[in-house]
């Protein structure tokens, strides 16, 4: 595997992000300051988090989201909590923020407190949906995934690497299978993916799971020497899918 999709390139990006001498304890994004713990994905070293905020209409440029319902949000892979906290500040009444990395859960709770929304944002240590209890559904289930495909037998050496690669797309398969079951009536599942990942492989997995992937937003950015396209996909059960016009941004 060579080029932008080479998982070894992403592992090196993970390593560099952890050991940079200029890695801060606090960073600025979207007009706010955010705490950053040592073992958590740093949004300042990648354009992906700001793209997510734009996809979900959570930047200052947009007054109301066309894709994110303002009721309840379940965010998978919350990291520092920028998306979860910004969604709460934008009007989401209940945000459950999960991450497989305990440090990320703590980081999200710190930033929820920093910005005055600890009553609306709750952190949960969970491998995808594993630790969720009860049957209550969410208006939106969202995951900015670890979209780079690693070999099935690769074992991440750190929690931080898990934010960059998914061996054999095992986590993506589970997400596609389970996420629609976590929705409230009329809710939607959204997945932020990228051409650093294997888009055809993702579609094959979706087909095997009985899911359809509908691109609702997309943007291309330069990441180092590579041009990378970021995609916001809506995940729907295949039997319920009806083709809608693609929104290109």
The gist of it:
With 249 residues, this protein is an alpha/beta fold.
Describe it.
With 249 residues, this protein is α/β, with parallel strands linked by helices. It is 26% helix and 30% strand. It is built from seven helices and eleven strands. The protein has helices at 7-19, 48-55, 82-89, 102-114, 159-162, 170-178, 199-208, and strands spanning 26-29, 32-35, 72-76, 94-99, 121-125, 138-144, 148-150, 165-167, 183-194, 211-223, 226-237. The strands form three sheets. The chain has a seven-stranded mixed β-sheet with strand order 5-4-3-6-9-11-10, with helices on both faces. Strand 1 and strand 2 form a beta hairpin. It is globular and about 45 Å long. The two termini are 30 Å apart. The model is unreliable at 241-249 (pLDDT under 50).
Topology:
Layout: H1 7-19, E1 26-29, E2 32-35, H2 48-55, E3 72-76, H3 82-89, E4 94-99, H4 102-114, E5 121-125, E6 138-144, E7 148-150, H5 159-162, E8 165-167, H6 170-178, E9 183-194, H7 199-208, E10 211-223, E11 226-237
Parallel strand pairs: 3-4, 3-6, 4-5, 6-9, 7-8
Antiparallel strand pairs: 1-2, 9-11, 10-11
Helix content, binned percent: 25-40%
- What is the residue-averaged pLDDT? 91
pLDDT < 50 runs, ≥5 residues: 241-249
Strand order of the largest sheet: 5-4-3-6-9-11-10
Record field, number of beta strands:
11
Measure the end-to-end span. 30 Å
User: Biggest sheet, in brief?
Assistant: 7 strands, mixed
Strand proportion: 25-35%
Compute the CA-based radius of gyration.
Answer: 17 Å
Order of helices and strands: HEEHEHEHEEEHEHEHEE
Number of helices: 7
